[in-house]
């Protein structure tokens, strides 16, 4: 039974590669062979966000906490585009929190772009930004 599974997976692999080759070069990928990387890695991203996000004054005064899920595209040159709130369900975050999170994401430095089949491609990412009082 194991041999059959391995053979079936191996037989389907070329079909997946053909699909990837025929994709529109301007497509936005959600899964890639080499994922985009913030300069310095994940630890540097956390430091950048911590230094640049400003807690909205009204939310701090009202002791409001929340999470803003921000989706954006890393372009082929590493720049950021298409910044948007992924979900605006009640209770996740205030509009001021969403606005602040989008501002900081839009102003991030260029990333190392993602790659698919050896070529730089546009990649969609989502980052949760947690607003929590200490």
Task: Describe, in plain words, how this protein is organized in 3D.
It is a single chain. The chain has 134 residues and is α+β, with helices and mostly antiparallel strands. It has a single domain, classed as TolA/TonB C-terminal domain. Helix content is 36%, strand content 25%. It contains 4 helices and 5 strands, in the order αβααββαββ. β4 and β5 form a beta hairpin. 14% of the residues are buried.
Helix content: 25-40%
Total E-strand runs: 5
**The top level CATH class name:** Alpha Beta
Element string (H = helix, E = strand): HEHHEEHEE
Layout of strands and helices, then pairs:
Elements: H1 2-21, E1 28-29, H2 42-52, H3 57-61, E2 66-74, E3 80-85, H4 95-106, E4 114-116, E5 119-131
Parallel strand pairs: 1-5
Antiparallel strand pairs: 2-3, 2-5, 4-5
């Amino acid at each position: 039974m194991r041999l059959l599974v391995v053979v079936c997976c191996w037989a389907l692999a070329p079909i997946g590669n053909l699909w990837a080759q025929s994709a529109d070069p301007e497509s936005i990928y959600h899964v890639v062979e080499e994922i985009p990387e913030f300069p310095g890695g994940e630890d540097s991203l956390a430091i950048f966000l911590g230094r640049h996000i400003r807690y909205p004054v009204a939310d701090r005064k009202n002791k409001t906490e929340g999470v803003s899920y921000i989706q954006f595209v890393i372009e082929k040159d590493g720049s950021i585009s298409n910044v948007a709130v992924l979900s605006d369900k009640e209770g996740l975050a205030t509009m001021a929190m969403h606005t602040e999170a989008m501002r900081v994401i839009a102003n991030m430095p260029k990333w190392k772009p993602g790659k698919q089949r050896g070529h730089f491609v546009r990649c969609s990412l989502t980052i949760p930004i947690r607003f929590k009082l200490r």
